[in-house]
């Protein structure tokens, strides 16, 4: 899928995807957001993405509650 510069694209983690070489002089920013939450959900110890004890994963509600409200 081709999109205009500045477009946000959200992909499911199981979707195979790629980005071609960035030919512009500007940096291409990418953000990876991993969301796994639900009753009795446990992050597997053998998952490739792990956080240290000093910087553990946060619950989505904790993150949402820490954000300012915009009206």
Automatic annotation (TrEMBL):
It comes from the Bacteria. Keywords: Iron, Metal-binding. GO terms for molecular function: 2-oxoglutarate-dependent dioxygenase activity; iron ion binding. InterPro entries: Phytyl_CoA_dOase-like. PANTHER family: PHYTANOYL-COA DIOXYGENASE DOMAIN CONTAINING 1, PHYTANOYL-COA DIOXYGENASE DOMAIN-CONTAINING PROTEIN 1. This is Phyhd1 protein. It comes from Microscilla marina ATCC 23134. The lineage of its organism: Bacteria, Pseudomonadati, Bacteroidota, Cytophagia, Cytophagales.
